Amino acid sequence: MAVPIRGAAELARLAGLLADDTRASLCLALLDGRAWTAGELARLAHVAPSTASEHLDRLVAGGLLAERRQGRHRYLELAGPHVAELLEDLTARLDPVPVPARSLREASASAAQARARTCYDHLAGRLGVALTDAMTRTGLLRQADGFALTGEGIAWLTTALGVDEATLRTTRRPLARGCLDWTERRPHLAGTAGAQICQRLLDRRWIVRIGTGRAVRVTPAGEAALRDLLDIDTATLA
After folding, report:
1. Theoretical Cys-Cys bridge with 78: which of 83, 118, 124, 225, CB 3.0 to 4.6 Å?
2. What is the value of pTM for the model shown?
3. Which domain holds residue 212?
4. For residue 191, how many other CB atoms are within 10 A of its CB?
């Protein structure tokens, strides 16, 4: 009698959850790291609220999404960084298929995402890759044998960005992890360090979100800070 291969059924169930355009769209929409209501997600996926609710229930039951209730509202978010990593890794391995923009607004949104966006809780796009390259060039990050912050890198995070060193030392997540960027086809910095950098840039309004999507833009104050801290010329990201 054939012996079932361990994990095969679980892998098939996971693949089945993502093997639907609507469920995949809902998961990708949540890669911005925020929690959204079921109604908002329905609009983003261009489906009826009842259809979205059915798919969201399956994603929650399957462990890809988590839900929180606040009053009469139901908020959905990715179940954790591990889900974001899975989605981004799978997306980055797809062959790029150019999709013609149907309007100037759509073209602008696509260009903004390629320039700078959040990848769950860290930065991606040309900005994310530029930050990663600059940190590597200045000795704050090592990529030769896997991503790792150097001693100088930890000191830089605590002094230049005000990150609590205990936060870096006690997390269960990898401190630094390479995440393959699906638009740049090169790695950007993820892990606790990537998340802390993204949050500090948002807190200081060196970057701000554009609308309701994942795209962000660098503010004039951010341009000056990135130039002073890492010698990044944000004009090259355009």
Report:
1. 83
2. 0.77
3. 104-237
4. 23
